[in-house]
Amino acid sequence: MLTLTIILQAVANVAIAKLGAGIGAGIAAIAAAIGIGRIGSSAMESIARQPEAAGDIRTNMIVAAALIEGVAFFAIVVCFLILFV
Length: 85
Hints:
Blueprint: H1 2-49, H2 54-84
Helix pairs in contact: 1-2
C-alpha cells in the first residue's frame, strides 16, 4: 500500500510540474507582449514630443524590444523543457 501511495504522489507531482510549465510559458509570452507594447507606446509618445530625436529613440526601442524578446524566449524554452522532460 505504501508503494502505491508513493507512485500516486510521484504522478501527481509530474502533473503539477507540467501544469506549472504550461502556465509559466503563457505568462512569459503575455508579459513579453505587454512589455514590448509599453516600449512602443512610450517611444511613439517620445517621438511626438521630440521629433528631432526620433532616430535615437527608435534605436533604443529596438534594442530594448530585442532584449525583452530574448528573455521571453529563454523563459518559454525553459518551460517547454520542463514540460517535455
